[in-house]
Amino acid sequence: MKLVTAAQMRELEAAAVAAGSSEAQLMEEAGLAVAQEAWMLLGSLEGRKIVVLAGPGNNGGDGLVAARHLFDWGAELLVYLPRWHRVEERFEELRQREIPLLDGQEDHGLGQLEAVLGAADLVIDALIGIGQQRPLDDGEPIAGVLEKLRVARQGFQAPKLVAVDLPTGMHADSGAIDPRTVTPDITVTFGLPKVGMYQAPASSHLGKVQVIDIGIPRAAMDAVGLELLTTRWVRAHLPKRPEDANKGTFGKVLVVGGCSRYIGAVQLAATAAYRAGAGLVTIACPETIVAAVAPAIAEATWLPQPAADDGGLSDQAAIGLRNTWPEYSAVVFGPGLGDTENTRALTWAALPDLAEAEQGAVIDADALNAIATLDDGPERVPANAVLTPHPGEMARLLGTTVADVQARRLEIAKEAAAKYGCTVVLKGAHSVIAAPGGQACLSPFAHPLLATAGSGDVLSGMIAAYLAQGLAPFDAACMGVYLHGAAGEALKDEYGEAGLLAGEIAGRLPRVVKDVSLP
Question: Is the pTM of this model over 0.85?
């Protein structure tokens, strides 16, 4: 499913007008859809009281169209205008029907608004939509309207709420929300979903989402570059599992990492690679921890490496592994290495050689922190790599702050992909996958359940498994991110929001893949 920014949505609307439509027709289609969704939400309209909160722009115009239709279908309508509206022809349609119009500028103290909201069965939020570019000031009329709406929604007989395009106070691009934003029962969005709807915190303040076709040309929508990952995409791109296969058919994964402090990271990555379908997984870790890790994963093969004095991999491992990379379909490099001088030296030496892995390499954890310290880090990262930073690691890779990363997740992921010349996964709620050419996808999932130690190691192993099975780096990253999130979704019903162990994500994966594969 495509996603758009506010600017792209305006371009799509302009394309519709250029193709023979008009702004009035687009508004008519949008308002009709809102009215239909309101009717379905209420179940019946006869005698039901509906209040339309109509702002001064096109979003308010959509609300006025919805008001006209709902009145014609039997509802009792009232339109509240925090500021007077520029779509005068829409007012005339309402005046002809004698639909009450309340001017908010004459409603001192908002007492009239409070009364009508208290008596309403349903409210339509058509105040701003995708036009919001900044937080609302305390003195703005719309801010006061939202406060009254919030109180009404918390009442004993709270009205249903429908948001037009976006809930007021929600930023269409960043997903930021104003503290006054009121979560609707349903958001009716037009043309395509907006990027911000699938970023935190906005994604939890939408209610049910309905995407409505208002006549945007299909070719214009197909040209949009940002996608929301879907089950349909995953089903179409899952690697084939032929009946006459052997373990070599599904590729070999090499996991390089581990230290005396983080002995479980390589085991989690290796287990996840197996659960995601890799045919054979080998672990290259310090020889001093092999005996501790081996009982937890009997299926792995081993390439013990010299340990450094700090308990991690010696930088000499880069020499020992130099002729090994081509033997493997994919590599996971970094889980549990530790943030040490040895790790930095090992990473510097190993990076160019990772390109020798047949399908690519996943670079994670302390290997990313090492890259961030290298002056020539971007040049040494191979083009077939997948970097998987969390926000803190991403901040170090780009020399910025975690706050900046979280405020501009999509843009930041694209910047990192361009800087390092490879696929980048910015982990977190609604993980972002970006490629150097500007292609990007968003995960539909945001689970606090997955915010647990080792979860990232599991994701790295999964992505490597899909690389080993023949997917291109960007597709392998998308596959791993989606199924990792889908496993969290499946486990949420059992665990709630806390208590999951990372290994249980990998354990659930085969059943998730089975469910996704069903038509």
Answer: yes
